[in-house]
Amino acid sequence: MPLLEPREGIPPVTATQRGLDAVVRAFAAGHGPVAVDAERASGYRYSGRAYLVQLRRAGSGTALIDPIACPDLSDLDAALADAEVVLHAANQDLPCLAEVGFRPRLLFDTELAGRLLGYERVGLGTMVENLLGLRLEKGHSAADWSTRPLPEDWLRYAALDVEVLIELRDLLAEQLAEEGKLEWAVEEFAAVLNAVPAPPRSDPWRRTSGIHRVRNRRALAVVRELWTLRDQIAREVDLAPGRVLPDSAIVTAAMEMPRGAKSLTAITPFTGRVARRHLQSWLSAINRARTLPESVLPQSAGPGEGPPPANRWADRDPAAARRLSAARTAVAALADEHRMPTENLLQPDAVRRLTWEPPDPVTDLSVADRLRSLGAREWQIALTAHPIAKALSRLEAKGEA
């Protein structure tokens, strides 16, 4: 059955301090978990800030808050300090909520719960339809939420995103309890709340799509210079980098090394509305790369950050490749047994790092300690440490580790 309208209609957008104070009072007076969602302008804006925050709670109804007009939600945060906050794919929304002063202390993540329960498709719309028999309209999920004023149909969509989130949470909690996974979920939710942001990549420009086509160090320097300039421009005008200049244009310019405006604008994306305003800057960046001394050109491969890609292990360290295969097999068998994706049973990066540099000696305790140091949760360690240690010890006994 399609879910077409919020039960109490579309609430007005809260965009004043007086209105926000009323929302705080209403939600402080409510009871039970609080459903929360946030809309960003991914793909349109450089920042990951929230442009709309939606909440729903029993006894409080639904609220839509404009965090651009009301950028400080710390009073709301204080009012809900003891409440469980229900989010879908919480790791996507928590950073932008924290920017406006809303930091949950207790979390239930419906997407993560679905993964632990082994559901193959865990998008909100799919889970609501399959578990609650209701169909959500998801047509505005990729909209530019920085638009003002927000269209009514977008606001309807936003309100419906939290309309039945508490009902979904309650059903998933029952299923987790029935399968003996509720305590696992509690650990996972706490880990999401306490996650430390990953440090910035040392060479973020190396993630340029299509960079594998760039074969020499001088051309790589062009990629680096253009990527850095694009990032600076995108940050200043708050546009997604790809809307300033697509990756494909950076790679093409690196391969062709244009020397003037005519040859640069022959690469069509450089004639785009934003890119053409900076033609001289793009050319200057290319010329900087062209004149750099050989000694400071970037290396073909970036600095190592952890183990090499797994597909290279067989050549670089055949014993490590065998360890990785054995550990992956053990984890996959356990994941099948407990009906969940292998990456939720144990993080793939932890498996790689453990098997690239295994503890010496390999025991249940040493494997458990290493997994813990790599960020594995206690429930994950309890399930996987012994099978992994057993698999690695078997290789050692055969002289293959």
UniProtKB/TrEMBL annotation:
One of its GO terms (molecular function) is 3'-5' exonuclease activity. Signal peptide: none annotated. One of its GO terms (biological process) is nucleobase-containing compound metabolic process. Residues 295-318 are annotated as: Disordered. Pfam families: DNA_pol_A_exo1, DNA_pol_A_exoN, HRDC. PANTHER family: RIBONUCLEASE D. This is Ribonuclease D. It comes from the Bacteria. Residues 216-296 form the HRDC domain. SMART domains: 35EXOc (SM00474), HRDC (SM00341).
